[in-house]
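WARN  no MSA supplied for this record, continuing single-sequence
INFO  ligand: 2-acetamido-2-deoxy-beta-D-glucopyranose
INFO  echoing inputs
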Amino acid sequence: MGLRGVIVLVGLMGTTWSFNMTTIRPEAVSTDTFARPETTEETTEQKGAVAEEEAVEDVMATGELNPSHYPAQRAAKVVQHYLNTRYGSPYKLFGLKQVHSGNAEDVADSGRKYQLDISVHEIISDTKENCSAEVFFPRGVKQLSPQVQVSSCEELLKIDANSEEEALYQQYKTNKTLRTEKRLPDSYGHIDPEMTPFWHLGIVASSFIMLNESTENTLYNVAQVANITQLTTENDQLKFDCHVLLHDMVSQEIPQWKLLFTWSPAGGVKVLHTEQLPHVHDCEKHPKTN
Ligand SMILES: *[C@@H]1O[C@H](CO)[C@@H](O)[C@H](O)[C@H]1NC(C)=O
Ligand SMILES: *[C@@H]1O[C@H](CO)[C@@H](O)[C@H](O)[C@H]1NC(C)=O
Ligand SMILES: *[C@@H]1O[C@H](CO)[C@@H](O)[C@H](O)[C@H]1NC(C)=O
Ligand SMILES: *[C@@H]1O[C@H](CO)[C@@H](O)[C@H](O)[C@H]1NC(C)=O
Ligand SMILES: *[C@@H]1O[C@H](CO)[C@@H](O)[C@H](O)[C@H]1NC(C)=O
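INFO  complex generated
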């Protein structure tokens, strides 16, 4: 799956690249070839439209939105992060499949509200469903995280991964300790199958940061989970220290974050601490130089 993701992405980047050389900085391209479940969802058509939009768009669109353009896509991405923070697990990972329609409006002086009809994908069970969502970006001196409400997503929320979660939990509670040896995915886009649930878990934990950090001007994905180290289990919660590289498609920044989080099937994912680290040095960003 990892490798397929890379191939798809290389194809997509090719398209975006030819659209406008100046909108994608060269150093970002190699980072973009990391497999990401979310990005494999996007069609070439959408990518092209997004890239084109970036060059012309300065003011925030209001009223009915073009579903494949940036404003609708950015707001819809926040819904994906929200679903992962609420319902994600090592065996449940949500992706944005498509935006069907979107509407944006100013709410007095307090912020902007997006109404969206989107289709969401639970990647592991390969379940897709149409959902309606409302995303509110508060406006203020201090940056506040967006507020999300999702409705009519019942099928996705019913997905039952309890037995897989329980088995993983028991193993790492008693018999094994996780310590990754390579980035997830590695420089070749590969992930050891045993590590895949932890890659998903790293993405779910990162969603708490991506939700918190999102604005109308960002579009975050996880580029790579740099490492995850399991710490001593406390109160029946598996505890992890994790470094991730996020990617904001709008600014082409690759912010690096450190996270401390816990997980158990009953308790879900809880983030205890997050810290943004200084920017990755250029040579570290290129997987081939590792
Ligand atoms: C690419 O984008 C820049 C601004 O970001 C613009 O000045 C330039 O005309 C665009 N080029 C093409 C080929 O669209
Ligand atoms: C989701 O919504 C789109 C657009 O409204 C529609 O074309 C599609 O058939 C819907 N899919 C399902 C599974 O209901
Ligand atoms: C842990 O290992 C022991 C012995 O190798 C085995 O009997 C037991 O089933 C394992 N437990 C889990 C939860 O994998
Ligand atoms: C979200 O941001 C707020 C304020 O910036 C901060 O206090 C909180 O710890 C952050 N939470 C996460 C999960 O990053
Ligand atoms: C995890 O990765 C970060 C940045 O890539 C690094 O600073 C840190 O030492 C690594 N931790 C472990 C335990 O490998």
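The chain has one domain: 3-282.
INFO  checksum written, moving to next record
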